[in-house]
Prior knowledge:
By secondary structure, this protein is mainly alpha-helical. The protein has a domain at 24-91. It is 78% helix and 0% strand.
Amino acid sequence: xxxxxxxxxxxxxxxxxxxxxxxxxxxxxxxxxxxxxxxxxxxxxxxxxxxxxxxxxxxxxxxxxxxxxxxxxxxxxxxxxxxxxxxxxxxxxxxxxxxxxxxxxxxxxx
Length: 110
């Protein structure tokens, strides 16, 4: 790794006979390019956040609808269970052992 860094430093050093004005201008150009790239990155980030808001609102609405549906389904299940319990109680009351089932006939008193 150190060898790679030294080679990179050798490439980045200006040549001994290089024009100092060109060196300054190249560093200035590199700085400007970095600032423009950073600005574009921030703009893309802001646009992404702005576009994310409607998606979050839509997902929130879907989650709310799912919650309401779940709540309604649980209520319907409770109601069905109560109806079954009432039906079972009615059936148990009809089959109560104190009630004598059978046929009868009425005899005339004459």
